[in-house]
Write a structure and sequence with these properties.
Belongs to the peptidase M14 family. The chain is α+β, with helices and mostly antiparallel strands. It contains 14 helices and 29 strands. The protein is elongated and about 110 Å long.
């Protein structure tokens, strides 16, 4: 890129940009323009003063004309279409032209400071200020990296800070509240389905009192540095300061922006706290946890190594296994944790956590790696809560369902990956829309009055089209479906990122093509309970002072929401799990920041540690038991457990054991199986820790007994012969 700029500056080809001594306009090269029209913006007073100073020092003003080709863009008005953004651009500090027409490049620098916290909301709204704003929805509090806009144009939740059109010297200001070492800035344009706005260059200033300001200077020229900014709305662009600056306040001053657009940006500031020997400022709050765990991001090799280490440290309660491979051949590793790893114990429920379905949502992956370390360590220490959890439950942790997508995001880095890159698997498939749609056939059968007599209300089979070899089903999805069918899971949570809320099924709206609509399952009470348990024990969700992440304030709903009432998701794993298996699954949106910086992992672990444990313990809620043959005491597999008033049944595992999640109350429960007389009993679920035992003994029907005797070549007993004759007489 810099070589291209050098050539443009040297040969000074045709028309369009006015270039002063600062070189600011050259940096607008990446900005789309209408044709060969000039892409110039009136310079603020500071720029004019700088140009005058340059002329006084004998530097003649230069003019360069650059041909910029416009890219055609299609705006979809009705629904936002996600497309992978361009690769992140790492830019350096301002490029200036010397009298000899050479480019003065700063030395290569690597970012050495973490983000200040605009994206993660550690920086509060009242720490942000601006010279002006077009509206409240475009105020400085919206100038946060990766913030997402609302769907309505001009609402209170727009996707950037935007200065007023008539603001000749716009600026966005951040108050760090403490002496801070600023080292870099990351910017994006405006997130919107209605407009295209982004800044193409900006300056940076600093202050200790918000009154006296100084600018970031170019090393060689000593003039104010002008930094190249964005060439599209979404790709994050990193600029490192020529020299880090210690101050309390930092300002970004847009110099040029997209022609026909507005001065709009989203930003993150890279900054390190510095000591305050005079004690003039309050101490910076320490983020973190006292747990001695591995708090860093792990790529595929590091994740595999860590899981192996946990297995070696706790061989008696852990087992690492693979459920399949990604499209690029990376294994989908699972950590099993139980007192008898590798086997299903009769009466012991199976629970799973799945993370990394979207590869760029990295926090869930790290939380599961931290959870397996924590459970291992605390079991060895004899912690009673962890010991009971591992002796009464079989836990399965899948930290990376989409390892291909994660590797893409990991290579970009936590701050430069943007909002969507790495979300999809290597085939470009969104795994959370890739499971079979079982909702539609169930609802059509319900409308025709076929459920549950003709069409079951549970364990719906895969549609024929979905099983064809050429069906668009990702290998990661197929692997997880086989995993679900192989193990009798009871409870699950799917860990995502980008919001702070727990959503529960159904995820798909019942009305076709409805964008959002309340669509509860027959187990609405159970799902609301499960969601509330996680949200109620998550520190971040329970913070009364936290602001909304993007465009919805979920705290007014208790930080839980029906998935379809948020936005429809056909083919979700939650709905599929509920309709194809016994498993009840919710989605946990863990953080506003999809890929938080490593220095925030300690706090995120503290935010979620108790919630992760408490949610696992909810598998004890409801009733559980074994359905046995009355004569042989052998467990009956695939017996159906039906609860009066709830149009969704579960089935027994191969040993006859079952678990039925229920909220406290009195229930009439019926167990039935092919070849047996059904049995019904009353079961009471209390608020005390369960599950409540609710066992059944079923008696074979005369026809079933006859079939078994004839198959064995045995003589039919007289009592059975008489019962069969009575049945024939009744018919």
């Amino acid at each position: 890129m810099w070589g291209l700029l050098l050539a443009l500056a040297t040969f000074a080809p045709a028309v369009g940009l006015s270039l002063g001594a600062s070189g600011a306009s050259v940096l607008g090269l990446a900005s789309p323009a209408t044709t060969e029209a000039p892409v110039s913006t009136p310079a603020p007073r500071s720029s004019q003063a700088e140009l005058s100073a340059g002329n006084k020092n004998g530097t003649s003003e230069q003019h360069v004309r650059i041909r910029v080709i416009k890219k055609k863009k299609i705006i979809m008005k009705k629904r936002k279409k996600l497309t992978p953004p361009r690769p992140p651009v790492t830019a350096r500090a301002s490029v200036t032209t010397s009298p000899a027409r050479t480019l003065d490049l700063p030395e290569k620098q690597e970012p050495d400071c973490p983000p200040l916290g605009l994206e993660s909301l550690r920086v509060s709204d009242n720490q942000l200020d601006a010279s002006s704003s077009q509206s409240f929805g475009l105020g400085p509090h919206r100038g946060r990296l990766n913030i997402q806009s609302g769907l309505e144009d001009g609402d209170l939740f727009d996707g950037a800070w935007c200065a007023e059109q008539q603001d000749a010297e716009p600026w966005l200001q951040v108050d760090a509240r403490h002496p801070t070492r600023f080292s870099g800035i990351i910017t994006q344009g405006r997130n919107s389905i209605w407009r295209y706005d982004w800044v193409t260059s900006y300056k940076v200033q600093f202050s200790n009192d918000s009154l006296t300001w100084w600018g970031s200077k170019n090393r060689s020229s000593g003039m104010d540095a002008v930094f190249p900014a964005n060439s599209d709305p979404e790709t994050p662009v990193l600029n490192l300061l020529p020299e880090p600056q210690v101050a309390r306040f930092i300002r970004l001053l847009p110099q040029t922006w997209l022609q026909g657009g507005a001065s709009c940006l989203r930003a993150e500031i890279l900054a390190c706290p510095v000591s305050d020997p005079n004690g003039l400022f309050p101490e910076v709050p320490v983020l973190g946890s006292s747990d001695t765990l591995d708090f860093r991001h792990h790529d595929y090799k590091a994740m595999r190594k860590l899981m192996k280490q946990v297995n070696e440290q706790c061989p008696n309660i852990t087992r690492v296994y693979s459920i399949g491979k990604s499209h690029q051949g990376l294994k989908l590793y699972v950590m099993e944790m139980s007192d008898q790893p590798g086997e299903h114990e009769l009466g012991e429920p199976e629970v799973r956590y799945v993370a990394g379905m979207h590869g760029n949502e990295a926090l869930g992956r790290e939380l599961l790696l931290l959870l397996m370390q924590f459970l291992c360590r605390e079991f060895l220490r004899g912690d009673p809560r962890v010991t009971r959890l591992l002796t009464e439950t079989r836990i399965h942790l899948l930290p990376s369902m989409n390892p291909d997508g994660y590797e893409t995001a990991f290579r970009r880095g936590s701050e430069l990956v943007g909002w969507a890159e790495g979300r999809w698997n290597h085939q470009g498939i969104d795994l959370n829309h890739n499971f079979a749609d079982l909702n539609t056939p169930l609802w059509e059968a319900e409308d025709d009055g076929l459920v549950p007599d003709t069409v079951p209300n549970h364990h719906l089979p895969l549609p024929t089209y979905y099983t064809l070899p050429n069906a668009t089903v990702a290998p990661e999805t197929r692997a997880v479906i086989k995993w679900m069918e192989r193990i009798p899971f009871v409870l699950s949570a799917n860990l995502h990122g980008g919001e702070l809320v727990v959503s529960y099924p159904f995820d798909m709206t019942r009305t076709p093509w409805a964008a959002r609509e309340l669509t509860p399952t027959p187990d609405e009470a159970v799902f609301r309970w499960l969601s509330t348990v996680y949200a109620g024990t998550n520190w971040a969700m329970q913070d009364p002072d936290r602001r909304p992440c993007h465009s919805q304030d979920f705290s007014s709903y208790g930080n839980i929401i029906n998935g379809a009432d948020w936005h429809t998701v056909p083919g979700s794993m939650n709905d599929f799990s509920y309709l194809h298996t016994n498993c009840f699954e919710v989605t946990v949106e863990l953080s506003c920041d999809k890929f938080p910086h490593e220095n925030e992992l300690r706090q995120e672990w503290e935010n979620n540690k108790d919630a992760l444990l408490t949610y696992l313990e909810q598998v004890r809620m409801g009733i559980a038991g074994v359905v046995r043959d009355k004569d042989t005491e052998i467990g009956i597999a695939d017996a159906v457990i039906a609860v009066d008033g709830i149009n969704h049944d579960v089935t027994t595992a191969w040993g006859g054991d079952y678990w039925r999640l229920l909220t406290p109350g009195d229930y009439v429960v019926t167990a039935s199986a092919e070849g047996y007389h059904a049995a019904t009993r009353n079961c009471r679920v209390t608020f005390e820790e369960g599950p409540v035992p609710c066992n059944f003994h079923l008696t074979k029907t005369p026809k079933q007994r006859l079939r078994e005797l004839l198959a064995a070549g045995a003589k039919v007993p007289p009592d059975l012969r008489r019962r069969l004759e009575r049945l024939r007489g009744q018919n």
